[in-house]
Predict the 3D structure of the following.
Amino acid sequence: MIQKGTTVYISDNSGARLAKCIHVYNKKIATIGDYILVSIKTYNPEKKIKKGELHLALIIRTKKEFFYGSAFFSFSDNAAVLVNRKYLPLGSRLFGPSLKHVRFINRKVFLMLDSTI
C-alpha cells in the first residue's frame, strides 16, 4: 500500500534509484498496478534523470501482503517503474520480481487484472 510520502525504489535502468510518492491517482492508497506521481530523491549521475524531477510511476511491488490467485504474497520492498506521459517505460530493463498481471510487452504496459488467474 503506497500513499503520499512513501519512498519507493525505482527498479529499472532509467537512472533513478529512490523516489518519494507525492500523489496517488484515483485513490487514497495505491497497490500493485496503480499509477503514482513521484519526485526523484537519489539518482545515477550518468543518466538523464535528475534530482527533484517529477515522473509518473507504475507500482510493481509492495511490502503489504495481498491475495493473488490462491495465496497471499508480499515483497521485501516497495518498488515502481518510471513511465512517460504515454505510459511507456523510460528504462529498457526491469530488475527484481514482478507479478504476471503487470507486463511490459513491446514497451507497452498491459495490465491484466483478471480475478480468475
In short: DSSP finds no helices and nine strands in the chain. The chain has one domain: 7-111. Residues 11 and 96 are 7 Å apart (CA to CA). The domain at 7-111 is CATH 2.40.150.20 (Ribosomal Protein L14).
